[in-house]
Amino acid sequence: MSEMNELYQQLILEHNKSPRNFKKLELFTHDADGYNPLCGDHYHIWLKLDGDTIADIGFQGSGCAISKSSASMMTSAIKGMKIPEAKILFEKFHTVIMTKIGDAIPEEKIEELGSLGALAGVREFPARIKCASLAWHAFNAALNQLAPTVSTEQEKNYKPS
Ligand code: ZN
User: Fold this and answer.
1) 66 alpha-carbon distance from chain centroid
2) How far is the CA of 38 from the centre of ligand 1 (A)?
3) Which one of 39, 69, 75, 76 is at 20 to 30 Å from 58 when CA atoms are compared?
4) In a 10 Å sphere around its CB, with 0-12 CB exposed, 13-18 middle and 19+ buried, how is residue 25 labelled?
């Protein structure tokens, strides 16, 4: 298990160093801001939906290694997915990171998360759970936007909080 933890830690550090989809989308249909005042993590997320499909996704901002690698892993996992699939993945991820310390998580529950499974260990550090789930909450906020419109205005809807 400690070898596994080491692998996971490497993966988190690697995503933090070279985050995937770390870009502002010039053309997007939805966007939202995500802020975790407890840690200071602050990101903006852009989505380009094509019907029900997440055709493109990008994020920018700054925060701790957990929040940044989580956003990187999330965006790579859900890019190309349909929204309901992405929501199911969020539920599975959420269930794993909210599992009580001491309660065993079945190995397959972690495996089906793909690279996001690397973040399963945050449940042992309750203060970091918000760091790990921030990108997902920003994604949900973006999806819940009313009247989505494709915009080429980069700062449109950008509301720092
Ligand atoms: Zn954080």
Assistant:
1) 10
2) 8
3) 39
4) buried
CA distance 98 to 59: 24
Rounded to an integer, what distance in angstroms lies between the CA atom of residue 108 and that of residue 130? Answer: 23
Measured CA distances, 78 to 32, 49, 55, 58, 157 (Å): 16, 12, 9, 11, 23
Q: How many angstroms separate the Cα of 114 from the Cα of each of 29, 67, 120?
A: 27, 17, 11
- Sorted by where each begins, the domain ranges of the chain are 2-150
Ligand 1 centroid–CA 141 distance in Å is 19
Ligand 1 centroid, distance to 130 Cα (angstroms):
7
Phi, psi dihedrals of residue 61, rounded to the nearest 5°: 140, -165
> Predicted confidence band at 7 (pLDDT cuts at 50, 70, 90)?
confident
pLDDT at 148 over 90: no
Q: Which run of H or E residues covers position 80?
A: none
Measure 140 CA to ligand 1 centroid, in angstroms: 18
Q: Is the pLDDT of residue 54 over 80?
A: yes
Q: Which amino acid is at 148?
A: P
Predicted confidence at residue 102, as pLDDT, reads 87
For the domain made up of 2-150, give the CATH fold: Sufe protein. Chain: A (3.90.1010)
Strands in the chain per DSSP E: 30-36, 41-50, 53-62
